[in-house]
Amino acid sequence: MIETILEYLLVFCLCATAGWFIEVVYRGIRHRKAVNPGFLVGCSLPLYGVGGVILYFLSGLKLRFCPNEAVRVALILLMAALVMTLIELCGGFISVRFFSVRLWDYSDEWMNFKGLICPKFSLFWTLICAAYYFLLYPALHGLAVRVIELPLLIFGVGLYAGVFIVDVFYSLGLMKRIKAYAAELRTRINLEQFKTTAREYVKRATGRRHAGFDFHRMMSRYLNDLREYRGMPAQPGDAEGKGEREKEK
Questions:
Q1: Which residue intervals of 32-118 are DSSP H helices?
Q2: Half-sphere exposure of 171 (CA within 13 A, CB side)
Q3: Which domain covers residue 37, as residue numbers?
């Protein structure tokens, strides 16, 4: 039991981190600037971590009812692509429904569904799943099943999991503040646009250019100043933005 938990935790850690780097590169090429994707502070994207764990499980299925290996592989890749699209839909729905925040927006894409999924990115998921199965899975499986034999790797997985949990709770605090702001304006927030607006605002206010990876402090400062400007009641976390302004003075 412990071996299995460590095995899947390792897969989650590696895939969440790899997904973060993929998104940084993709968005860097698309927007010509380096930004921290998602809503966590650290280099981790839970969507990729959860997806990686599910792909890891699917890749190991024998599917003995399949007539040959080609059919088995095709069926695994089809299931993987559908599951990844479903995870993306669920993750996007939860962020919009419970936090009034859009983590991504495919509204301009062909045949999109509520701006959360679309055929174009489902195709990307299919290609990623194929690369995962043919290129990554054999080596990943060989390492994951041996994690119990490597104390240093166990320590690394435990450390990663601890930092990840702290990061999630810290980041959810910021998401709740954004949700409160969105509720007062009776709107929904596009996270990427909000990051850009916050970065430009802080740059004008401080005269300094902030890195795209430091969006938590930028957004905290921006939210705090917006609330003061609109005369809104203070929210938990506003003191953080106030402290940043006092340091700048």
A1: 46-59, 69-99
A2: 21
A3: 2-165
